[in-house]
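In this section we walk through a basic example: taking a raw amino acid sequence and producing a predicted 3D structure, encoded as C-alpha cells. The instruction is simple. Fold the sequence below.
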Amino acid sequence: MQPFQKIKSIATPLDKVNVDTDQIVPKQFLKLIQRTGFGQYLFYDWRFEKGTPRKDFVLNDPAYKNSKILLARDNFGCGSSREHAVWALDDYGFKVIISTSFADIFYNNCFKNGILPIRVSDETLQKLFSTKSEIEVDLEGQSILVNNVPILFHIEPYRKKILLEGLDDIAMTLLHEDKIMIYERSHKI
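The resulting C-alpha cell sequence is shown next.
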C-alpha cells in the first residue's frame, strides 16, 4: 500500500443516498482474482446502458475525468461486505471519499486498501457539493481546503498512521517481527 499524500483534485459529486456495494461494483464482475481491474466496472449499471456510456451519469462527465475525490450522500458503501467495492474505487482512481456516513465494513475496508473515507456534517457536504473548484485533502493536518478555507475533520490516530505510512495488515504485523520471532523461539514444539 502506498503512503497517503495530500490530494488536490476536483471532487466528483455522486448525489445518491444508500449507495450499496452491489451498485459500486455489480456481482457479475467479481470473477477477477486480483485487486486490480475493477475500476472499469465501477458503478457499471449507472455508467453504461448496453455497454455505451450514459451521458447523464457524473463519472461520464469529462469535467470529472481523473478526479481523485468522490463526494457521496448518507450511508455510502452499505450492503454486502465485499472488499471489491473499495478495490473498484481505488482502481478507478479515487483516493478520498467524503460523506456524512459510511457502512461500517466498507469504512474499515477503505483504510485496509489505502482510501481515506472522511465523515463530515450535512452542511459541510452541501458546501462541497456546491463548489466547482479543486479541493485539497491534507491527512496530516486533517483538513479539507476549499477556496482557501480549511474544514477540519476527525480521524482516529491509528487509522491516520496506517494511511500516512502506507501500512496494510501484513505490514503492521511485520512491524512486530522481532517480538514474533522471540515468541516463536520460546514456544518451539
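Looking at the output, two observations stand out. The mean pLDDT is 93. The first strand starts at residue 7 and ends at 9. In the next section we compare this with other chains.
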